[in-house]
Amino acid sequence: MQERAWFKDRQLVPGETLFSSTRSFALWAYTVSHSQLLFRTRTGGDLPRIDLLFKPVKAIKVRDDYDGLVIRVSTVEEEKQILSETGSMGSGRVLMLLTGASMDYVVTGAFGWQEDHGSDRDPSGLAFFPPGSDPARILPPESA
Asked: Quick one: where's region Disordered (predicted)?
């Protein structure tokens, strides 16, 4: 399995699936200053950590967690409708977040994912978060 991928511009083909996993993902961090949205799996056992990063983010309709997740590029029709509804015409591509029968979206310029063996508290290899918003600095300490 590939451990890292990054998609932007011409790589975002309408209707194409970019990522799929049966694992659970949580909204891990969002920063307005760098327009980054990070989802992460929890680590445990022998399973690696997976980070999903969207940047720059222009509009979102997401939930705080997903039990299984497919990310695909919107169809042309979906993109027109969502960009019109959000007032984001010409400012990014629409990526659909699918889980069960639900569908959310992120309007963004690029999307990437990385699989590694970092802990929940380790920084993402994909994202930069300013010190005041770094999840590792603002999460409660791990219990002893």
From this structure: 117-144
